[in-house]
Amino acid sequence: MAAELVRYAARDGQAVITALAGASPAVLPGYSVRILDGNHLAATEHRLKALRPYAGGALPGQALVVYDPDQDLALEVVPCENGHTQERALLAAVEAHLAAGQVWVMDRNFCVLHWLQRVAAQPAYFVVREHEQTPFTPLAPLQETGAMETGWVGEQPIQVIGANGQPVVWRRIRVLLQQPTRDGDDRVYLWTNLLAAVTAVTVARLYLKRWRIETAFQHLAQDLNTEIKTLGYPRAALFGFCIGLVAYNSLAVLKAALRRVHGAEHIDTALSGYYVADEVSGTYRGMMIAIPPAEWPGFRHLPITALAAVLINVAGTVCLARFRKHPRGPQKPRPRASLIRSTPIKRPSTCW
Question: Phi and psi of 168, rounded to 5°?
Fold first, then answer.
């Protein structure tokens, strides 16, 4: 039920955002991109009786989320009550959402041959970080192809064994990083079945767009408070997370209207999700009191184009200065403490 609620909100959100023409610039023009990632709910503070003897925090569940980076929408969610289940074990539930022509961007947890072959069979495309345990055979040495903002890019063809036992040729892309990752990796390997017309540098830049779903998860946890630490029952915690996804999709429609009026670059870079969520939560109760209930059903039955026109009109009255981000500047390194020898103070010998 909770997953269907998210799906319902996403379908309506897609229709309104399309009518608004308020999507962000496409991350890969000409393709429909999907970012797949898992989110483990935070360890709960409320301990169920069966878990009280254990010292570690109880994980109330996890979920796979399918995210559209162009429309900033959570399209699908696969909830799981076992917070310790491997993410790849939930992939079977995602297969129903594959469609021809899509490009799926994923972390190395999803670099599983049977799953990648299912994507390619649609036919669809994938960009996935290499997992060291996934077998392949190089067909040629790496060839340097160019440079990007974060490093230098090379490419080589590789061969894997398909589901029917026949060899399949994919592309393997290496990025030598200028700065190591937080895990200490100085290079990243990517696999893709995208056509050669999509260059290796373009593929590497597309993988970097994965941060958008990480930002979405952060917004859900911090600004929308979807991971309530007192919810120890998995179904309650997962339902709360899904309600947060519905709220996130509602805010995505709001941001689409603002993009239409104020420009995509300004909204995507300067609008604070925290201030927007705080404004909505702070004024909602008063708005429900000031506007009689009889006024609301009319919006429910508005045609999509009429609703888009109303949102554009309202977006034109928004003072964006109230919702602008205030990013912190770079932290200055602390000066190294030095030992200063001070001259001891001579105290009088008089006893007080």
Answer: -125, 140
Rounded to 10 deg, the angle between the 211-222 and 234-262 helix axes is 110
Name 238's Cβ contacts closer than 8 Å, sequence gap at least 6. 2, 41, 60, 61, 63, 79, 80, 81
- DSSP class of residue 324 equals B
Distance from C-alpha of 199 to C-alpha of 173, rounded to nearest angstrom: 10
My answer on whether omega of the bond before 123 falls inside 30° of 0, hence cis, is yes
Structure letter (DSSP) for residue 54: -
Q: Helices 273-290 & 234-262, crossing angle to 10 degrees?
A: 100
pLDDT at 349 over 50: no
pTM confidence score: 0.85
How would you class 227 by CB atoms within 10 Å of its CB: exposed for 0-12, middle for 13-18, buried for 19 or more? buried
What domains does the chain contain, in order, with CATH numbers?
Answer: 2-6+23-209 (3.90.350.10), 218-323 (no CATH)
Nearest Cα neighbor of 25 from 251, 205, 273, 263 is 263
Digit-coded pLDDT (tens) for 233-281 = 788 888 888 999 999 999 999 999 999 999 998 898 889 988 998 888 8
Strands 143-148 and 62-68: unpaired
Reported in sequence order, the residue ranges of the chain that DSSP labels E, i.e. its strands, are: 32-40, 62-68, 73-80, 102-106, 125-129, 137-138, 143-148, 151-161, 167-177, 187-192
CA distance 154 to 175: 7
182/292 Cα distance (integer angstroms): 52
